[in-house]
Amino acid sequence: xxxxxFKNPVKIIFGKDTISKVVTEIPKNAKILMTYGGGSxxxxxxxxxxxNALSEVELFEFGGIEANPHYETCMKAxxxxxxxxxxxxxxxxxxxxxxxxxxxxxxxxxxNGDPWDILAKxxxxxxxLPIGAVLTLPATGSEMNGNSVITRVSTTEKMAFGSxxxxxxxxxxxxxCVYTLPDKQIANxxxxxxxxxxxxxxxxxxxxxxxxxxxxxILTTLIEEGPKVLANKKEYxxxxxFMWSATVALNGLIGVGVPQDWVTHxxxxxxTAFHGIDHARTLAIVLPGVMNIKRENKKDKILQYGERIxxxxxxxxxxxxxxxxxxxVEFFESVGLPTKLPAYxxxxxxxxxxxxxxxxxxxxxxxxxxxxxxxxxQILKDRL
Length: 384
Fold this sequence. Notes:
Strand content: 5-15%
Number of domains: 2
CATH superfamily of the largest domain: Dehydroquinate synthase-like - alpha domain
Shape: globular
CATH topology of the largest domain: Dehydroquinate synthase-like, alpha domain
Helix content: 40-55%
CATH architecture of the largest domain: Up-down Bundle
Number of helices: 15
Oligomer: single chain
Strand order of the largest sheet: 1-8-5-4-2-3
Number of strands: 8
């Protein structure tokens, strides 16, 4: 296991009827901008719960944040932050709203030119406004990390940044929020969390049994609980287990001391940028291709994954790997996510555009930094 340092300062408030506790976490006399998405929080009662809890607080609102948050939308919020002298941001929604809020927090205090450089040029975030979160959709783990992904519509780019400066001060997780989610969002959340784990787990062994078992427990829980939530959204225990799984899948713990991949995400972002495909659905497409094309590099961990998660323990190594990929595809499709590009009307033309982008980039991908544009092409063509 590698050397590591780990610190996660996010306070988690988890459980039934916890949204009202937001008032105890907001700094006194704060001037707050509440951010949210398309308005579902007004239909499921979360909006009213937050507003009632903060009835005596100076509160501004900014809605309309997209499922793949747009840079252009974020910058409109930045204007409000500056004009109204906002000093605290409260994200009320899913991971996309929180990702946008993180970028708004950083961009509002960025003084080194165009805030897009935070994403496009990896410019450091030296300061950011404080953030709190009320999570309504389990999926991204954004409620307990410093990561954010933003889409710039004008250039069809989707870019990520990470900084401890934008980690929420607190996140409130009430599993009852799952009760009113559409099936599509639940299915996306299950697969999103699953692939987050795989990016940190499906690499190569470094004698890290604790991390491996942590990761495998999350995968197993998602496989068991995801279908339960889809069958009955109001089964509280299943909703709670699903919500917590999504959080711990990307709060940093299972990734310390081990190699990480993230090529599935990098390729998936391009599919979203060009076609607007839901993030989780791009992951469901790309991961099986990565597993197939990189089967030699990932052989030991794929075999371990196949045996421990799916009970695959007979056949040749290649047959076991094929079976593990097949079981992964079967799971994704069982919760409603197609895993082939033609299901999304994506073909050779888009693959060529994505490959051209990776060819221009000065770095290679994967846990061994050995995936270039040629292998990106192989991975995508594997999914045709």
